[in-house]
Design brief:
The complex is a heterodimer of chains A (about 475) and B (about 500).
Chain A lengths: L2 E12 L38 H13 L3 E2 L2 E2 L2 E4 L9 E4 L6 E10 L2 E14 L3 E3 L7 E3 L6 E7 L6 H17 L12 E11 L9 E6 L2 H20 L7 E6 L4 E7 L9 E2 L6 E2 L2 H10 L4 H11 L4 H7 L3 H13 L3 H18 L11 H12 L5 H14 L3 H8 L7 H14 L1 H8 L4 H13 L6 H16 L1
Parallel strand pairs in A: 12-13
Antiparallel strand pairs in A: 1-10, 1-11, 2-6, 3-16, 4-5, 4-15, 6-7, 7-10, 8-9, 11-12, 13-14
Helix pairs in contact in A: 2-3, 5-6, 7-8, 7-9, 8-10, 9-10, 12-14, 12-15, 13-14, 14-15
Chain B lengths: L7 H9 L5 H19 L2 E4 L1 H16 L11 E5 L26 H8 L3 E6 L33 H8 L5 E5 L6 H7 L2 E4 L20 E5 L2 H11 L29 E5 L9 H16 L3 E5 L7 H16 L17 H13 L2 H14 L5 H21 L5 E5 L15 H6 L5 H6 L3 E8 L5 E7 L5 H15 L13
Helix pairs in contact in B: 2-3, 5-6, 7-15, 9-11, 9-12
Classes of the chains: A alpha+beta (about 475), B alpha/beta (about 500).
Chain lengths: ~475, ~500
């Protein structure tokens, strides 16, 4: 029997608002424990929440970017459970009336395009963090309490680990583009829950599913899905039934284990949050957010193809993340050679980033510096080889390309007399090459050019050098 | 007459004429506290030393300034569920026995701005759950009209402080009658304003959609003065109404001529003490004589109000009180084995029986499989009752009802029967469910000399009319001179 995998996802995205969802504490990551707190996010007796309007704006933007309907009327609810990282003993979330419903995201895997349905997006608050490693026992850091989140819930439309990853990357890309979130996986700004079930290929009924929570990297997502689908197939082949349960993914072991069954599942006793008023969003507001929505990756990619005449591959790579696209666009405004900029971003920059363990987000050079560098190459002030060297120096020192060229004396030899003298000497020193050329072996030109470049430490303009070599060789043969 | 026995507006006249100082006024009330507090036990904690220091400071300030605000230098009490920075706020619970809030309730900040002088925090039923103040984890408060009787609750300490002249006024909170019922039992004026009129920020929550802070005062004019000071929009409370400040004393004495006062049979049900009924009938006659029109009105869904109230309030309470888990502040069990045991022991030991009863009731009502039958149904009833009131107020300006079915009962009389205790709220809970304002004022005494209260209800934001109608009755009957027979010698 052939099995088909059915996957639904829940993606938690921390919103990039400056302050928390119900108080004015900052949301900044990585601060000293328990310094970004107040009586409100600490859930002390008698305090009340006030919904951060920016949270509604960001969630609306997220919804529009994922093609959702934005609810005119939605409300906040309480999800009740005890845990030390949850000071109020309830998480303020949305239950039956979420802010966004019914969206769709198109993905492409192996050249096949497919729509993934978004069931809903709701607003909620993050919990704090328990620190178990302390010598004093388990400690609590409540800085993260009240950091706003949206939870994006999909239809069970995904059919493979690859589809799940592609979808998750696409959502990350869109959230980043629309400034809904910085989507820093390593800071927990984006986390995945996956529901997986198996069924006979072609069947319409869903199989029993298991859920894995809090996967915090694309790698963990892929591996967890692969592991769990294999585990389920093995179980089914043995004739066992799949137990509906929550499983914990252990990324170091590369395996999942049962956490709690459906019977042990908590009853969250949701009910409407009486301390907050309903969220009522007018059409005009939605229209305004829609107008202000930045260009999304799909549209941008198409525009790069149409407007900059870039190959589809280049357009895809450049628009894969918002920061790369922004870098490209800022450079192309200053230097109107899209393909050349694209080449440098795709080919020359990545190894330098990798070497320094950086990403496009914290790239040490500015688009204006790249544009200046490429202009120097275009205007033959330096050649391409020197250009690469200058780029490396820019990464190391942060200096402007012009400055580096001057300091290192990398400017191409524009003095033809000097170049002629060098070439004259090289040609004289290599009579064999001249002879070869005389017998029709054009390859010898390459040899001579190489010698010239070596002698000039790459500063010779290759075209100019070539022209002079031909003249000098002709003279010798003549 | 001692200064402590006077009303706020009488003291205001004396201060205006410079016949007394704030220090003298405060000394008088502190002296009264020294004399009777051991008998009444209205306060959980006292700030009398600080109050005297504050009084002298106000006097110094007033000597250099002409203008004085109506509550400036007037000593008052605060129910112990309103947060006071650096002053214990226990909610009369073992759970918060050591809780010193690092912030103030909005109303306390308002009264600080007004120059009020805090005398202390008043006793209450634990987390405001109860109708007799017997559910306090710390002490029993006694009714100054008969020390063997309860003061009502949950704002029993606040009502007693005012009735026994150990505060000129006090703030209480009213979730199902917790201001009005003790006001009625103690012969003082108590008002629950429209939901959202007074900020709930810093009021330790019992049932968020029902809780409202209000004044307990010696007469109706004082009630208007205190209300003036505590109302107003507060950005920290999302349910706070965005309204302009208002002066409720302005039209207070305009009379009731031409107003329609509704009377509904639904409020004269089983268990109504005959003297309470009689007192209300007399009140009807008083209003007729004053030129008001009396109209019969009827309700359709009032029978379900009490059940719906206990469902909604307990459901919200079960969630609001979940934060008391022994992790961050307040009581924590001394010995426990792991996290779940810490939770269980802390909550078992920290909460009293009534609080536990409501938490269990509320948890059950919200549980999966029961939600629709209990919580959801109760919310539907809530909508129906709101509609009932809208329809009733289409035919009258205010509604006249008893505040409670009886006058104050004996201490210990109803503690073994929670349901009977719940029934004492039958005439007050509907008001909270509908979010409308209600005021209780004394209407007379029963055969054993205990005060009877009557309740006036009006539509959303009808406080001004309610106060006017209440003042007209009080003025006509002269009942504001009723004084609890509590001598200094008891």
């Amino acid at each position: 029997m052939e099995y088909e995998m059915v996957i639904g996802m829940e993606i938690h995205v921390e919103l990039g608002t400056k302050t928390k969802i119900f108080c004015s504490c900052p949301t900044k990551f990585g601060q000293e424990e328990n310094t970004h707190t107040c009586p409100i996010c600490l859930g002390m007796p008698g305090v009340l929440p006030v919904l951060n309007e920016k949270v509604v704006e960001y969630a609306t933007r997220a919804g529009l970017a994922l093609n959702c309907e934005i609810a005119h009327f939605s409300k906040m609810d309480r999800k009740n459970y005890f845990y030390p990282d949850l000071p109020k003993a309830y998480q303020t979330s949305q239950f039956d009336l979420p802010i966004c419903t019914g969206g769709v995201v198109e993905i492409e895997v192996d050249g096949v395009k497919k729509d993934i349905g978004i069931t809903r997006i709701h607003i909620e608050e993050d919990a704090g963090k328990l620190l178990h490693e302390s010598a004093d026992g388990t400690l609590i850091d409540v800085n993260r309490c009240g950091v706003p989140l949206v939870e994006i819930v999909t239809e069970p439309d995904l059919r493979s680990a690859e589809e799940a990853r592609t979808f998750a990357e696409k959502v990350r890309n869109i959230m980043e583009y629309t400034d809904v979130s910085d989507c820093k996986m390593q800071e927990g700004s984006m986390r995945f829950d996956v529901n997986i079930s198996m069924r006979e290929k072609g069947a319409t009924v869903l199989g029993t599913r298991t859920e894995m929570k809090n996967l915090n990297s694309f790698r963990a997502l892929i591996r967890a899905v692969q592991y769990e689908s294999k585990r389920q197939i093995v179980e089914l082949k043995k004739g066992h039934k799949i137990i509906q349960e929550t499983r914990k993914w252990d990324d170091t072991k590369g395996a999942s284990a049962s956490l709690r069954s459906k019977e042990e599942a908590q009853d969250y006793r949701y009910f409407p949050e009486p301390d907050l008023v309903p969220i009522v969003i007018e059409k005009e507001y939605i229209e305004k957010i829609k107008r202000e929505l930045p260009e999304l990756p799909e549209a941008k990619k198409q525009r790069y193809i149409d407007e900059y005449k870039l190959p589809e591959y280049d357009a895809g790579v450049l628009t894969a993340t918002g920061v790369t696209a922004r870098f490209f666009e800022e450079a192309v405004v200053l230097y109107d050679e899209p393909k050349q900029i694209s080449n440098w971003i795709m080919v020359e920059i990545p190894p330098l980033l990798k070497e320094k363990e950086l990403t496009m987000e914290n790239i040490p050079i500015a688009p204006v510096q790249l544009a200046e560098l490429l202009k120097l190459v275009k205007e033959s002030v330096i050649n391409g080889t020197s250009g690469k060297e200058v780029l490396k120096e820019m990464f190391n020192t942060g200096k402007n390309p012009g400055e580096i060229v001057k300091e290192k004396g990398l400017a191409q030899m524009s003095d033809t007399a000097e170049l002629e003298a060098i070439i004259e000497k090289i040609v004289s020193d290599n009579p064999k090459s001249v002879e070869d050329i005389g017998t029709g072996n054009e390859k010898a030109y390459g040899f001579l050019t190489g010698k010239v470049m070596k002698e000039t430490k790459g500063k010779a303009n290759p075209q100019v050098a070539n022209k002079i070599i031909r003249e000098v060789v002709a003279k010798h043969l003549g | 007459m001692e200064l402590s026995q006077k009303t706020i507006h009488e003291i205001n006249d004396l201060l205006e004429k410079k016949e007394v100082t704030v220090t003298e006024v405060t000394e008088s009330v502190v002296k009264r506290i020294d004399a009777v507090e051991k008998s009444t036990a209205a306060y959980l904690s006292l700030q009398t030393e600080e109050a005297l220091i504050a009084a002298r400071a106000v006097d110094r300030e007033l000597s250099e300034r002409k203008k004085r605000t109506p509550l400036e230098g007037i000593p008052y009490g605060l129910k112990d569920n309103m947060c006071t920075r650096g002053i214990l706020t226990t909610c009369a619970s073992k759970m918060l026995y050591n809780f010193n809030p690092p912030y103030n309730a909005h109303v306390y900040d308002r009264l600080i701005e007004e120059g009020g002088i805090l005398l202390g925090k008043t006793n209450m039923d634990e987390f405001a759950m109860g109708s007799s103040t017997e559910n306090s984890a710390y002490k029993i408060t006694h009714n100054p009209w008969d020390l063997n009787k309860v003061p009502g609750g949950s704002s029993g300490g606040s009502a007693v402080a005012v009735a026994a002249d150990t505060a000129f006024y006090a703030l209480g909170s009213d979730t199902g009658g917790s201001i009005r019922q003790p006001a009625s039992f103690c012969g003082v004026v108590g008002m629950k304003p429209t939901y959202g009129l007074v900020s709930r920020y810093g009021l330790v929550a019992f049932a968020s959609s029902l809780d409202q802070i209000g004044p307990l005062t010696k007469d109706v004019e004082d009630c208007a003065l205190v209300l003036n000071a505590i109302i107003g929009h507060d950005a920290k409370d999302s349910t706070s109404l965005k309204l302009e400040k208002k002066d409720y004393t302005q039209n207070l004495k305009q009379g009731v001529k031409g107003l329609k006062i509704g009377v509904a049979q639904a409020f004269f049900g089983e268990g109504l003490q005959p003297e309470v009924r009689k007192s209300l009938e007399e009140a009807v006659e008083v209003y007729k004589a004053l030129g008001a029109e009396i109209v019969d009105v009827s309700f359709r869904h009032l029978d379900y109000a009490l059940s719906a109230y206990y469902m909604i309030s307990s459901a919200e309470a079960s969630s609001n009180l979940a934060r008391y888990d022994g992790i961050r502040y307040g009581y924590r069990a001394e010995e426990y084995d792991g996290l779940v045991d810490l939770y269980k022991k802390t909550r078992s030991q920290g909460f009293g029986d009534e609080v536990k009863r409501r938490i269990m009731l509320g948890t059950y009502a919200l549980s999966s499989g029961y939600y629709d039958a209990y919580y959801k149904k109760a919310m539907q009833v809530r909508t129906l009752i709101k509609e009932d009131f809208e329809q009733v107020f289409g035919g009258c300006d205010v509604l006249l009802t008893p505040t409670a079915p009886t006058t104050a009962f004996g201490i210990g009389e109803k503690t073994s029967n929670p349901l009977e205790m719940y029934l004492t709220d039958i005439y007050t809970v509907t008001v909270n469910i509908a979010g409308i304002p209600g005021i209780s004022i004394p209407s007379g005494l029963d055969n054993s000399g205990m005060p009877i209260g009557m309740q006036l209800l009006g539509p959303i934001l009808s406080e001004e009319i309610l106060l006017k109608v209440a003042w007209a009755f009080e003025n006509e009957k002269g009942l504001k001179n009723l004084k609890a027979p509590l001598g200094t010698e008891v």
